[in-house]
Amino acid sequence: MAAVSAGTGRGTTELPIDPAGLAPREARRLFAGGLVAPTSGWCQGFTQANLIAVPRDLAFDMLLFAQRNPKPCPVLDVLEPGRFGGGILGEGADVRTDAPLYRVYRDGELVEEVADARSVWREDLVAFLIGCSFTFEHPMAAAGVPVRHQEAGRNVPMYRTTTRCRDAGRLSGPLVVSMRAVPADRVADAVRVSSRYPAVHGAPVHVGDPAGLGIVDLDRPDFGDPPVVEDGDVPVFWACGVTPQAMVMESRPGLAITHAPGHMLVTDARDSDYAVP
Amino acid sequence: MAAVSAGTGRGTTELPIDPAGLAPREARRLFAGGLVAPTSGWCQGFTQANLIAVPRDLAFDMLLFAQRNPKPCPVLDVLEPGRFGGGILGEGADVRTDAPLYRVYRDGELVEEVADARSVWREDLVAFLIGCSFTFEHPMAAAGVPVRHQEAGRNVPMYRTTTRCRDAGRLSGPLVVSMRAVPADRVADAVRVSSRYPAVHGAPVHVGDPAGLGIVDLDRPDFGDPPVVEDGDVPVFWACGVTPQAMVMESRPGLAITHAPGHMLVTDARDSDYAVP
């Protein structure tokens, strides 16, 4: 049983739990109770989701933005306006409390991070659950592709690119990508395995030179931790679920609430539900 | 060069064209010019789409209904409110004229079929393009699975089922399925090939006994033509893009405009764009 190092409201604690073996409901209860921890590796086999909640009058534009940009914004579920649980999130769940950490954006500015979003939530917010590449990291590792940031205990590096998303109504923004350095003889396997998960970003958008995406310095990601790159590795880039946050920064809706990068919502859906064929 | 038998405003005509070899733009121009014909087999390799247009104030519910029911309602594109072309439909296209035949629903009742929808279109309508199983019929045939309705020159049979779609806001309705009778030793191939096209209904929803879907008489479909079933065939059911029309009949929006079954919009997208992995 592995211990997990985590911050709570009261500081960092070693928890006597095996996060990989928890049921999603148990993990959500821990996070609702105040635990703050990155969710990589939690509840193995269950799907984790990016969160973005926007006011009802922007909900069509948001859903259209996601539909037009399915690689960075694959929608797994949308909660009915005014509802906090149900769907793949599970009955009894509360989207306002069950992620470990939230970000609050006002007029496109990140104004605070909170572990409980109830005090900033509004009745007219509509919550979107967006697929996360954690889903294909496990089968990729099982296929012999090293997942270097996981092995190093780091968050995946993420970059804004000069590639534009397709606009939708009042919403626009750049594509954000995550990067995994893959040995040259494993790139084909990384493509093959991730391609089987189109609902969670799917195949890479770019393999090779970061300059092709307008990334100047691979060692300075815009989100997450610096990459681990070994000799003979090729940088492989996947569309990333932080893209909606970059869209919020550019499009400046009055209010948007998201998860904090790496601190995802653990759902009742299974990774295997999203595999094709 | 095959001739195509088609109705125009002036009656049925033999056209000296090979519809399979036409470019999508050319096909759309013929239909905009008044030609009425089923589009099965037209513009081979290019993606055909179901159409549903609803008023702007229902657009979020419609997009959510599609997102929650991705097997019957895989959204290929949504036109910006007030726009008639662009996206996968191609520049210069006009969604109001470029399908061969339209259905107009008022308060859930089918009130007329028109070859040109401009006189009934409203500025606040939002047009949704939904994937169509025509996309996987060609690779299925290429893999040795007989596509019996095509061979017989018939429309595919479609059935309302007792399976419910997931509701979305004010929208609800039953799942509609299409049926293809497949030899028992080819069912696995039919599943395998269609699974590779999740954006156009994907894998079957049901294989075998029609009673499991609440279908009483396979020879009396609710839409399309009666099936061709040979000895040793197994009925295989796929989610169908006519599902939004059944939803309209149940949910009764003030106005909805759709294509007529089998008379699809031919887009500039390629079938191969939707294949995974």
From TrEMBL, chains A, B:
It comes from the Bacteria. Pfam families: D-Glu_cyclase. Its EC number is 4.2.1.-. Keywords: Lyase. It is an enzyme of class 4 (lyase). GO terms for molecular function: lyase activity. Belongs to the D-glutamate cyclase family. This is Putative hydro-lyase GCM10011366_12710. It comes from Ornithinimicrobium tianjinense.
